[in-house]
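User:
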Amino acid sequence: MDYKALAQQTAQEILGYNQDTSGWKVVKISKKVTVSSKPSKKFHGNLYRVEGIIPEPTCKLSDFLYKPENRVTWDKALKMYNMVHKVDLDTFICHTITQSFAMGSISPRDFIDLVYFKRYEGNMNVISSKSVDFPAFPPSSNYIRGYNHACGYVCSPLQENPAHSKLVMFVQTEMRGKLSRSIVEATMPSNLVSFILNAKDGIKTCKAASGHGHQHCAHSSFPKKK
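Assistant: Predicted structure:
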C-alpha cells in the first residue's frame, strides 16, 4: 500500500471539510467548545466538527496533539497510543486502544491509523488520520477493531492573538460491534468536548512542569519501533 499517497489524500479531505460551511448542525456548546455534525458520506453515521481556542502557538500545539509521546500524557480517552511503523519524518502508523465510554456501555476499541502532519501557508498545520490495514497488527479477540474514516485537526494562529491557536477537529469514527447508532450519537459530543478540555489541561500541566513552555515535553523525535 502507498501509505504516503493515502496520507496526502486524507489531508486534502480534512482541508475540504474545513472549507465546507454548509449543512452543519450545532449539537453541543460547552466551556467555549462547539460541536457540530452532519451525515457522513463515508458510512452510516456522523461527521463531527469540533472548534475551540487553545492558548498555545500553533507549532507547539501541533506537536502536542499528534506526537505519540505527548498524546498519552493527556488524552484520558486512551489506554494506549503507540507508533508501530514509521513511513517518513511526518507520516506514521499508530495502534490505539481506547478506554470504555458511556459508563461502560461502549467497550474499549482498538484502531490502526495512518497519521500525517502537513504544514501549509499562513502557519496552518493539518494533522490527518485514517484507519488502514496493517498486517503486523491484525484484529485481536481482545478488542473490537474500530475504523476511523478521514479524521484530523486543523491548527491555525488566532488572527487577533497569534500566540493562541484556533483548533478545528474532524471526527468520523465507525465503532463497529453491535452498538446502536443512537448510543454513539448520544455520547460522542460530550466525549469530543472532553478531548479539547483534556488537551488544554495537558498543555497547562506540561508548561508548569517545564517552567517555560512545553519544549521539553515535545522535542524528542519519533520513538523507535519496539
